[in-house]
Amino acid sequence: MTSARYYHTATLLSSGKVLVTGSHSSNSLSSCEVYDPPSNTWSPVASMSSARRHHTATLLSSGKVLVAGGHSSNSLSSCEVYDPPSNRWTPVASMSSARRDHTATLLSSGKLLVTGSSGPLSSCEVYDW
């Protein structure tokens, strides 16, 4: 990787490359990079709109990646979608609750189930992408 990272995500893309998002250093990071296994190379890609760590990054059936929640100076409810072919991040509707250390599960219907947080939170949210 070109940047040392922890509390980040790594998502296998449809292309076979791996998208690495966010991290914690002395502060949360918005930077992202892609790993290309065949060439064993790392390349920087567009940064997220929000710096975050402890977030989720889920590959959607469209081939886009939905990043949800996380932590910067506080827990986040914001979400954004990465489109690999255009190398663009687009902010999308925020979750109703700020979440970090949560889970995001892509359902067979294509909807995304988001549950939990770092503290007790009994709510869940379902997104239709």
TrEMBL record:
Q: Which UniProt keywords apply?
A: Kelch repeat, Repeat
Source superkingdom: Eukaryota
TM annotation in the entry? none
Q: Does the keyword Repeat apply?
A: yes
InterPro entries from the entry?
Answer: Gal_Oxidase_central_sf, Kelch-typ_b-propeller, Kelch_1
**Which protein is depicted?**
Uncharacterized protein
- Give the organism, scientific name: Didymodactylos carnosus
